[in-house]
Amino acid sequence: MTSDVVSVEIPGNRDDVLKILKRTGISGVPVIKEGRLIGIITRKDLLRKPDETQLGLLMTPDPITIGPGATIRDAARLLVKHNIRRLPVVEDDSLIGLISVSDLIHAIAHMKITDVIKGTYTSQTFAIWEETPLTVVGKVMEISGFDAIPILDSENTLKGIISERDLIRSTVIEDSVGVSDFSNGTDDDEWTWESIRDNHTLSYSISKVQLPKKAVKNAMVKNVVAVPLNAEVSECALKMKRARIDQLPVINGDKRLIAMLFDRELIKVLCN
């Protein structure tokens, strides 16, 4: 597990969480209140609720946890079963660490597992054109549930990868002013005397996490690390560890994209 856990406390600020995720590249942080773990905030939460600023409404409450004496197989099974990326490690109601999919990938990299990835661990995927606006990419990623999407040029050549991490790094905070109209009646209101009405408006500030409208090619990772279908499990884990990535495109002999290998699928090797 990771013992030096980056966390946030309630009451806190959404913008502070965003800064942490941008600076560290991690995918989520535990939320603490009065020394007790009460939730988790992830990149998905920020992207799916761009208007929300309160940590209590952004976070997933009562997260699934694990004890320090559990095995990595126990951790892998929980992560796979609940389709999550991290498990807070709790002892005597205190947060003492965090075990993530990435931590398990690091372990697999040293296990010399020679099973090939073909079929068992690879996933079908789709790709996006490199000129697609980031705003559209964000919506596609939200709808599809994919954490990363390959990017192709007009010749169907693999040019890059865009992930949630890259989207978060591209986000900006947009501040604007909204106006609510509490006017009594309308021009056609028969009860309005000589069209005299009380006009009441309320102005309020809006702070929103926003993706710029630039093309995805300007935010994607261009130096793509890829693997063939006959690559071995530990070999792929080592590539992920060294490149600090969560996924690998799978290519054929013509270097054409045929599938994706996600770290969350690769850790299933520990569940057997």
From TrEMBL:
One of the Pfam families matching this protein, by short name: CBS
Keywords: Amino-acid biosynthesis, CBS domain, Methionine biosynthesis
Keyword Zinc-finger assigned: no
Residue ranges constituting the CBS domain according to the UniProt record: 1-57, 59-116, 121-177, 220-272
Protein name: Putative signal transduction protein with CBS domains
Species the sequence originates in: Methanosphaerula palustris (strain ATCC BAA-1556 / DSM 19958 / E1-9c)
An individual GO BP term: methionine biosynthetic process
Signal peptide from the UniProt entry: none
